[in-house]
Amino acid sequence: xxxxxxxxxxxxxxxxxxxxxxxxxxxxxxxxxxxxxxxxxxxxxxxxxxxxxxxxxxxxxxxxxxxxxxxxxxxxxxxxxxxxxxxxxxxxxxxxxxxxxxxxxxxxxxxxxxxxxxxxxxxxxxxxxxxxxxxxxxxxxxxxxxxxxxxxxxxxxxxxxxxxxxxxxxxxxxxxxxxxxxxxxxxxxxxxxxxxxxxxxxxxxxxxxxxxxxxxxxxxxxxxxxxxxxxxxxxxxxxxxxxxxxxxxxxxxxxxxxxxxxxxxxxxxxxxxxxxxxxxxxxxxxxxxxxxxxxxxxxxxxxxxxxxxxxxxxxxxxxxxxxxxxxxxxxxxxxxxxxxxxxxxxxxxxxxxxxxxxxxxxxxxxxxxxxxxxxxxxxxxxxxxxxxxxxxxxxxxxxxxxxxxxxxxxxxxxxxxxxxxxxxxxxxxxxxxxxxxxxxxxxxxxxxxxxxxxxxxxxxxxxxxxxxxxxxxxxxxxxxxxx
Length: 483
Description:
This protein is mainly beta. Helix content is 15%, strand content 50%. Strand 32 and strand 33 (432-439) form a beta hairpin. The chain starts with a helix and ends with a strand.
C-alpha cells in the first residue's frame, strides 16, 4: 500500500507539471482576460523605456515565451527574440506583472500552457545623454537644435537617472563654440513628507519649482525605497488632469489622460486586469469640477459588469474604518449605471460593520442619502461631501491672519518675503491638528506661520462626508510681505 500510494503521488505530481502547447488544448487556448487589446494597453501603460534606449530613439519588439499557470499568472518567462538587454529586462519585468490570464482548457479542465507574446517598444526622437544628463541645444531665439552646431547659443543639462527620473539641478549655459558659461539653474527639489505612503514608508516628492516655490512640470512622489507612488504634471503651480498612480507591486493602478474639455481615467486591479474606464467632462471651461461617466467596469476575474455605460456593479475598495479597533477596512458598494451615470439606489456596507450608507441618484446627480455608524442613529443628508470652512468664510480667514500675523524681526532685517506653505488636518471638532511644514522661508517665519495657524483652531466648521463629520487634510499658504 505504501508503494502504491507513493506511485500515485508521483503520478499526480507529474500530471500537474505537464505543459501543453497551443495546438494541444481546446479552442483558442490561454488568452488575456478581456482580449489582446487590453493586454497591449496594460503593457504600453506600464513600460518604462530605459533612458539609454530613449537616448538612441530605438524601437522594436521583444518576443517572450512563458507558461500560463492555473491561477492566471505566468512563469518561466524567457527571451525568444531580443531587442537590447535593457529593453529585454524591462519587457520581462512588465510582462510578469500581468496575472490576468485565462488558462488553456483541455478535456474541460484548466491546464498549464506554453505561450509566446510580443512586447513593443515604440521609437522616439533621439537625444544626447552624457554623464547622466540629457543635453539640449538652442539657438539665439531659444529654438531647439539637433546638436551643438554653430547656431547653438544655449545649452541645457538635465540630470536623469537610469530610470529617467530627475535627480539634480537643471543648468542652462550660454555661449558658443564649446565655450559655455552658466546662465542660470533651476533647482531640483526633494521634499520629504511626514505623511505616510500606501506601504507606511516615509515619502518624498521630487521635481522642479518656479521662483514662487510652485511646482512645474513632472512631479513624482516616491517611497523611501524609491518606488513610485504617483506622477503628476503641474503648470504654474497647479496640477493638470494628467497623472499616473502606481500600486505597491509596481504596476500602474490608474492613468489619467487629458482631452479637450475633460480627461479619461483608466484603472487596473493589482493582477493587471482592467477595472474601469471613466470619462470626466468639465462642467465649464474655467471650472475644473467635472461630471463622471463610466464606460466600462470589470471584476478582478475579467467579467464585464458595465458595458457601453450600462450595467450593475458590486465592487470592493479599501477605505479608512470608522472603528477605533481597525485603521482600514473594505467597503462593498452596489448600484446601477445607465448611460454611464449612477442611477437609482446605491448601497455601501463596511466589512467591519462600522458604517453603512444608502443613496439615491438621478442621472448621475446625488439626490439624498442616509448613513449610520455602528451603534449610532441614522443621519439623513442632501449634500454628499462638504469641505471644512473657516467661520465667516475665506475673507474672515484672511482678516484673522492679517490681524494676528507678526513679522519676525530677523526676517524684516534680512528682507525675507514670500510664502510659507503648511499642511494640516481639520478634525471632526473643527480643531487644527497635525501641522506639517511643506515649504518654509526661515528666519522665524516658519515658526510664526505655525503659531498663527494654531490660533485658528476651533474656528473651523468641520468637513462632512455622507452626513458624518470627518477629518480633512488642508493646505494653506501664509504670506509674508514687506511694506
